[in-house]
Amino acid sequence: MSEIRIEGISKTYPGGKAAAVSDVSLTVGDTEFIVLLGPSGCGKTTLLRMIAGLEYPDVGRVLIGERDVTDLPPRKRGIAMVFQSYAVFPHLTVFENIAFGLRMQKRPNAEVRRRVDNAASLLQLEPYVGRYSAQLSGGQRQRVAVARAIVMEPAVLLMDEPLSNLDALLRLQFRAELKKLVSEVKTTTVYVTHDQVEALSLGDRIAVMRESQIIQVAEPMVVYDHPATAFVGGFIGNPPMNFLRGEAHSENGHTRISIGGQSLAAPSGLAEQAADGVLVGIRAENIRTTADRPQSADASALQADTLVVEPLGSHLLVTASVEGQVVKVLTRTDFPARPGDTIWLQPEADKLRWLRATDGSAIAS
């Protein structure tokens, strides 16, 4: 068992005005791939380093399996780590780079050969095992760094933004390879990134962090579709979730959200839960656009003024203004919209998310 349990961990650096990590608890299941996602300075790398034993918490515990490893040095935790920097030894061949940890443990040569060959095969490095790092591309060097970690057969694999030094095409390719690799080796993995695309595509679950705390932990599409706060909805997604500020009120037994001089239907009881204002969240791809006002009596549509039209190949990204509030919409490439045009936006009712305007917290609907 290589389950990780983090219990009430906090860390403040000397001279720091605020905690780097504040009262964080998290359980990572055996063989689970979890992603710590958040902006720079939110505490995700500090949390990873405390799991690794490179930092010690002020309070709280770290358990791997049934062992309390809080006070153990990294070498006794059964972990391997891949950093943002490749950290590939330039004077060693690919084979010896991968074998380095095994050599330090004085493993028999036959075992070293077998395990290095297996790791090189998993990461498609067999043609390069005799080369030095100067003869490798950035993507190949990162593969060597990952191979050097997994060859140790660790109980836990920790990765700190390992793809950030790669260009966009290499990152896309290596991301798919990494996901396949982790599923094959079945190692409990904690992965740190600020890239929400990496988080959505790689993780079994995502832990979204902000200002030293975990805000939401859930499966990727739950975080995407049902953000716990406006921060989560705005941080994840490209473009980020739209939020329209409105006021909830009852009208003939029905609840509606007034957005300037327009309104949208809302779940009953919403007015009581958000008396001080509502944020209506909707993803850009969940809004239907029309050039003319919908004629259906039950259509819930908002009039908008087109500000910017951006062709993005497979679709258009339209930036529009609804009662002075900016909304981004993804629509078909042949949609007839130009800056200054009036268009109509029809949000999918079941995709609307309701949050309190006061603190951005989600309202159960």
Radius of gyration equals: 25 Å
Order of helices and strands: EEEHEEEHHHEHEHEEHHEEEHEEEEEEE
> What class, by secondary structure content?
alpha+beta
> What average pLDDT do the residues reach?
90
Rough outline: elongated
Describe the structure.
The chain is an alpha+beta fold and 365 residues long. It is built from nine helices and 20 strands. The chain has helices at 44-52, 94-104, 109-122, 138-150, 168-185, 196-202, 220-225, 230-235, 270-273, and strands at residues 4-11, 21-28, 33-37, 59-64, 67-68, 79-82, 156-160, 188-193, 205-210, 213-218, 242-251, 254-259, 262-266, 278-282, 287-290, 302-311, 316-322, 325-331, 342-347, 353-356. The two termini are 39 Å apart.
Produce the secondary structure layout:
Elements: E1 4-11, E2 21-28, E3 33-37, H1 44-52, E4 59-64, E5 67-68, E6 79-82, H2 94-104, H3 109-122, H4 138-150, E7 156-160, H5 168-185, E8 188-193, H6 196-202, E9 205-210, E10 213-218, H7 220-225, H8 230-235, E11 242-251, E12 254-259, E13 262-266, H9 270-273, E14 278-282, E15 287-290, E16 302-311, E17 316-322, E18 325-331, E19 342-347, E20 353-356
Parallel strand pairs: 3-8, 3-9, 6-7, 7-8
Antiparallel strand pairs: 1-2, 1-4, 4-5, 9-10, 11-12, 11-14, 12-13, 14-20, 15-19, 16-17, 16-19, 17-18
Helix pairs in contact: 2-3, 2-4, 3-4
